[in-house]
């Protein structure tokens, strides 16, 4: 049976150049070993499997292989039907006397944990997640060596068979959230998963919404902090981004640096970030509405300045703002795709040269350049929301150009009402402001000292409500 099974495996994997079969002849019978050489530690195979087997002078059994001979701890017996899947999962498979073993000796290039480019810290931990899920799990385990930490694994993708891990603290998390997350993951029917964003698309409670409904984290300290609040974390093999749910929109006003800095300063910075959202989205549209429809409400001196700087422009106010927005967006896309240092130089020089040259050439006005530049810079006070804010800004430009100030006000009312209708796994999107939860306001737009945040967020509806001064419940 071993011979025919061995031949069947080789036939199915014959087009894989890195597939290896090693056959060992012993007094107890032939031992066949299968693996992909590009995905396993070949020295460990020799040291922990091959050498101990070849050193056996006496007859041994299959049970002896498991208990005495093979020296690695991560070993399990499998059925014949599982062999091909185990090899494709980068395990070493051993056949002996009609029985099969799967041995984990996986090894492939892994990036060293470094500080993520989007979450730099002045103080606090600087480790970031990498593309290997085993490394990411170890980074979380190191910070959360709790008996209540639970990890459940799934495989998603018909072709990629990607490992997805769901993490939570069983004594804190809302069990319904865990159940919902696992149910959604099990229902995913897709050919491949290459990043966590693929999974996030299926975890949304409102799939076609513009707004993100899951949190995306790149640092283990942030993920651990969110799990301690009662959230579920989802790790995807091959991605340095960890998904967290439930998600509230004000999470993006917060930063990991906030929890390692003076709370009064943090409150001020969070207010500035919130103002940055308003400036980023409505300032260009508001500028157009005042300039086209409500210029009489502006100070006379400002009206004169605008009139003098725009009198010879070939574009209408609307076309001017759209032209500048497109120009800055092109510069952003170019700087994003060029090599790092060349991209930085291009974005700075391009913005200065094109902006200054455009004004001198009479194509665009200084007020228009300033308004658009401030709006674009303000978007990156909340970089995780940049794509959504860019779309919303375009909507407000259209509203300001066509309806005026009433269009801006109507747009704000509609967007706030729409956001208020969203929820993430039973948690209101605008919590703790709508509905207002006074205890949760201690870590919202304003931040209180850690010593005053005694309870977990009520909006998450956790099992254990007490965070400070209490034990497990």
Give an overview of the whole structure:
The chain is of the alpha+beta class and 473 residues long. 44% of the residues lie in helices and 13% in strands. The strands form 3 sheets. Strands 1-2-4-5-3 form a 5-stranded antiparallel sheet, with helices on both faces. Strand 1 (19-26) and strand 2 form a beta hairpin. Helix 9 (263-292) packs parallel to helix 14 and helix 11 (317-337) packs antiparallel against helix 12 (340-360). The mean pLDDT is 85.
Topology at a glance:
Blueprint: H1 2-12, E1 19-26, E2 29-36, H2 42-54, H3 62-69, E3 75-78, H4 83-88, E4 92-96, E5 99-103, H5 133-143, E6 149-156, E7 162-169, H6 175-186, H7 196-203, E8 215-217, H8 220-229, E9 232-236, E10 242-245, H9 263-292, H10 300-310, H11 317-337, H12 340-360, H13 366-379, H14 386-402, H15 405-421, E11 423-424, E12 427-428
Antiparallel strand pairs: 1-2, 2-4, 3-5, 4-5, 6-7, 7-9, 8-10, 9-10, 11-12
Helix pairs in contact: 5-8, 9-13, 9-14, 11-12, 11-13, 14-15
């Amino acid at each position: 049976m071993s011979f025919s099974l061995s031949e069947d495996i080789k036939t199915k994997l014959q087009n894989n150049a890195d597939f290896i079969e090693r056959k060992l002849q012993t007094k107890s019978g032939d031992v066949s070993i299968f693996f992909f050489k590009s995905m396993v530690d070949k020295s460990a195979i020799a040291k922990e499997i091959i050498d101990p087997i070849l050193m056996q002078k006496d007859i041994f059994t299959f049970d002896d292989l498991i208990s005495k001979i093979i020296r690695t701890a991560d070993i399990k017996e499998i059925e014949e039907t599982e062999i091909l899947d185990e090899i494709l999962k980068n395990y070493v498979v051993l056949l002996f006397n009609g029985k099969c073993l799967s041995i984990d000796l996986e090894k492939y290039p892994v990036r060293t944990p470094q500080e993520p480019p989007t979450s730099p810290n002045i103080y606090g931990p600087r480790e970031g997640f990498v593309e290997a899920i085993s490394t990411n799990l170890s980074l979380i385990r190191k910070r959360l060596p709790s008996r209540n930490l639970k990890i459940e694994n799934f495989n998603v993708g018909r072709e990629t068979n990607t490992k997805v891990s769901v993490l939570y603290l069983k004594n804190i998390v809302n069990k319904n959230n865990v159940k919902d997350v696992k149910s959604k993951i099990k229902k995913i029917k897709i050919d491949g998963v290459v990043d966590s964003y693929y999974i996030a698309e299926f975890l949304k409670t409102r799939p076609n919404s513009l707004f993100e409904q899951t949190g995306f984290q790149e640092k283990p300290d942030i993920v651990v902090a969110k799990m301690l609040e009662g959230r579920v974390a989802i790790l995807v093999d091959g991605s340095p981004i960890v998904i967290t749910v439930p998600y509230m929109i004000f999470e993006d006003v917060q930063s990991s640096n906030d929890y390692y800095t003076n709370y009064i300063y943090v409150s001020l910075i969070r207010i500035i970030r919130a103002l940055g959202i308003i400036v980023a989205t409505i300032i260009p549209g508001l500028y157009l509405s005042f300039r086209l429809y409500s210029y009489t409400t502006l100070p006379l001196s400002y009206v004169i300045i605008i009139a003098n700087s725009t009198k010879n422009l070939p574009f209408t106010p609307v076309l001017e703002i759209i032209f500048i927005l497109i120009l800055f967006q092109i510069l952003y896309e170019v700087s994003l795709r060029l090599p790092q240092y060349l991209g930085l130089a291009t974005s700075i020089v391009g913005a200065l040269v094109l902006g200054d040259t455009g004004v001198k050439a009479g194509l665009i006005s200084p007020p228009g350049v300033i308004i658009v530049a401030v709006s674009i810079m303000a978007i990156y006070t909340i970089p995780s929301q940049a794509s959504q804010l860019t779309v919303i800004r375009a909507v407000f430009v259209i509203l300001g150009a066509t309806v005026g100030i009433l269009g801006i006000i109507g747009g704000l009312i509609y967007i706030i009402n729409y956001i208020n209708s969203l929820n993430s796994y039973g948690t209101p999107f605008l919590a703790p402001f709508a509905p207002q939860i006074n205890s949760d306001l201690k870590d919202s737009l304003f931040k209180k000292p850690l010593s005053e945040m005694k309870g977990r967020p009520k909006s998450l509806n956790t099992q254990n409500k007490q965070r400070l001064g209490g034990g497990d419940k």
